[in-house]
Amino acid sequence: MDATARATSAATTSDWPALVDLVRHDPDARVRAVALARLVGDAPRDLSRDAWAHAAADDDRRVRLRAAQVAPQLGRSAACSTLLALLADDDLWVAEAAAYAIGEHPRPTARAVSALAAATTTHRDALVREAAVAALGALGDPSTLPAVLHACDDKPAIRRRAVLALAAFEGEQVEERLRRALGDRDWQVRQAAEDLLRA
To answer: Which domain holds residue 56?
Structure first.
């Protein structure tokens, strides 16, 4: 059976042990990624969790990306230590998806939240910084407010995300930063600030 046929079969089968074997051993990254998505979507959690952790360390970026993308479906079964490794991935799309996944985690560890804050302020790629600040807004951890405020001075797309993230926080610093955003060069940043202040 060729890779296309194996991937098609993996997308529909309920033979969970066979899918685990595909995630771990299939020579084609596409098949491994499809098998992982099927497992995480419907298989018993003990099987999907272990296969997910294996896939998150796959040699192929496409499989690691799929692991980051499906992590929110695992809920608290997605180990934050694994998500941290994905956030630090050399592939920017993997890191971006991991940032989102941490923001969706029901119980992120303090270390994971701290890593998100660090990514917001120091990651070399704007896409990852944007995803990280959006995740901080989803979590609303008061300790991360300085990182969100820092992001309010980044590139326009990141400033927009940061202003929206401020909705999860309270205090004088937040109000003052929203008022400053009313004069931002980017009209979407201004609009977001105006909407939040009005609310």
So the answer is: 1-78
Final residue of a structural domain among 19, 48, 78: 78
DSSP 124: S
Domain boundary pick from 43, 78, 113: 78
Long-range contact set of residues 136-141: C-beta below 8 Å, sequence gap at least 24: 136/103, 136/165, 136/168, 137/103, 137/161, 137/162, 137/164, 137/165, 137/166, 137/167, 137/168, 138/103, 138/104, 138/168, 139/102, 139/103, 139/108, 139/113, 139/168, 140/168, 140/169, 141/113
Query: Is residue 1 predicted with pLDDT exceeding 90?
Result: no
Residue bearing tokens 């899918």: 19
- Tell me the average pLDDT across 95-104: 98
Which tokens in the block code for residue 65?
């990306």
Q: Write out the two tokens for 38.
A: 């099927």
Complete DSSP assignment for 53-73: HHHTT-SSHHHHHHHHHHHHH
Q: What is the mean pLDDT of the chain?
A: 96
What CATH code is carried by the domain that includes residue 129?
A: 1.25.10.10
* 95 and 184 fall within a common domain: yes
Residue 199: which pLDDT band, with cuts at 50, 70 and 90?
A: confident
pLDDT: is 114 or 47 the higher one? Answer: 114
Residue range 11-34: mean pLDDT, rounded: 96
The number of distinct structural domains making up the chain is: 2
